[in-house]
Amino acid sequence: MLKTTATLALIISSVISSAATATDTTVEPSVLERTGPFAHVDTLKLCLDYHSLSQDDARKQYKKELDYRAQLSTKDHQLIDQNQVENSMTRCGMYMALGSPIREQSRQIRPMTFKTVHIYPDKYYVSQSGMIVETLDRKAGSLPPQLIPTVPKVVPPPVAPKH
């Protein structure tokens, strides 16, 4: 019985492998092997370059490519061309609406979670993992939001410790 099962398994595997080689004569191109003007352009560069574009055709192509790469939200599409940024927009949408910031500072706050303060002439935008989570006015004499939250002092418990 054991010998028949092993023989049967060998016959089935050889039939499957020969059928696979007989039908796999053409090789499909990979989804990642794209061609076109944006095929080898970095996503961040597309986001930053969009702000300086003046022709509508070029802007549509950039948006189409960034949508293909799943970088834009519905709110981004509503506010980018109005040069506005609101909470829950993507960082890419912020770059597309306002261009490159004066300065940025980032910090990893948890594994795979980064918090960044983007400084523009009139606002501070705080992004976390690629989404704008806070918008603050920039005033003379005020500092940007802290990346490291201040930890409150811990008060000891109200009961006396046991000896």
Keywords:
single chain; four-stranded antiparallel β-sheet; 163 residues; alpha+beta
- Please tell me the overall pLDDT: 81
**Main sheet specs:** 4 strands, antiparallel
Report the β-strand fraction as a percent range.
15-25%
Tell me, briefly, the overall form: elongated
Poorly predicted segments: none
Strand arrangement, major sheet: 1-2-3-4
Helix content: 25-40%
Report the end-to-end length measured between terminal Cα atoms.
74 Å
Order of helices and strands: HHHHHEEEE
Structural class per helix/strand content?
Answer: alpha+beta
**How many helices in DSSP terms?**
5
The rounded Rg comes to 27 Å
Number of strands: 4
How does this model look, in words?
- Helices cover 35% and strands 17% of the residues.
- By secondary structure, it is of the alpha+beta class.
- It has a domain at 43-137.
- It has a 4-stranded antiparallel beta sheet with strand order 1-2-3-4, with no helix packed on it.
- Helix 2 (43-50) packs antiparallel against helix 3 (56-68) and helix 2 (43-50) runs parallel beside helix 5.
- The chain is elongated and about 75 Å long.
- The model has no long low-confidence stretch (mean pLDDT 81).
Short recap of the structure:
The chain has helices at 2-23, 43-50, 56-68, 74-79, 91-98, and strands spanning 103-110, 113-119, 123-128, 131-137.
Layout of SSEs?
Layout: H1 2-23, H2 43-50, H3 56-68, H4 74-79, H5 91-98, E1 103-110, E2 113-119, E3 123-128, E4 131-137
Antiparallel strand pairs: 1-2, 2-3, 3-4
Helix pairs in contact: 2-3, 2-5
